[in-house]
Structures are given as structure tokens and as C-alpha cells.
Amino acid sequence: MAMTYKRNLACFTDTVGVEEAEGFLAWLQTHPKLKLDLSACTHLHAAQLQVLMAARLPIAAWPADGNLMVWLKSALNEGA
Fold first, then answer.
1. To which H or E segment does residue 24 belong?
2. What is the pTM of this model?
3. Boundaries of every domain in the chain
4. Kind plus residue range of the DSSP H or E element containing 39
5. Could you read off the pLDDT of 21-40 as tens digits, one per residue?
6. Are strands 35-44 and 59-61 parallel, antiparallel or unpaired?
7. Confidence band of 79 (pLDDT split at 50, 70, 90)
8. Taking CA 46 as the corner, what is the angle to CA 55 and CA 52, rounded to the nearest 5 degrees?
9. Fold of 3-75
10. In whole angstroms, how far apart are CA 34 and each of 25, 40, 66, 67, 80?
11. Which has the closest alpha carbon to 21: 1, 52, 47?
């Protein structure tokens, strides 16, 4: 499973695909204080990115992969 949920933390691991976007959005709507851990994420589908862009979640940990981190920070207007 590429996404795991804890109390108020969603953890993205490895490749996070389109099939999990709807479930993530539903979970997000019931957890408004959610933070996101992307440290183990290696790839993110555009559908997931759209959810993140709309939700403007606080990021607890950015991806370890430097290229992905820079790309996501840019896409989420977080600076590099």
C-alpha cells in the first residue's frame, strides 16, 4: 500500500498512483488537521498532486529524492 493513515498524518510511500486519489480525498475531508509525510515517496500521480494543490496541506516531511522534492515544492508553491 502506497498510502498509510495515522491519526492526523498521511504517509506516502514509493509510487502513489491514481487509484488511491479518491480515497485520499475522502479521508482528507474527514481529517482537516492532516499533515503529510512524503519522505518515502518516489513518484506521485498527477491526480494526487491535484488533491495536494487544492488542499494546501502542511508537509511534515518532504521526499528524500531531491528532484521530486524540488518539483513538489515548486508545484505546491513552497519554494525550494
1. helix 21-30
2. 0.86
3. 3-75
4. strand 35-44
5. 888 888 888 887 889 999 99
6. parallel
7. low
8. 15
9. Transcription Regulator spoIIAA (3.30.750)
10. 11, 17, 24, 25, 22
11. 47
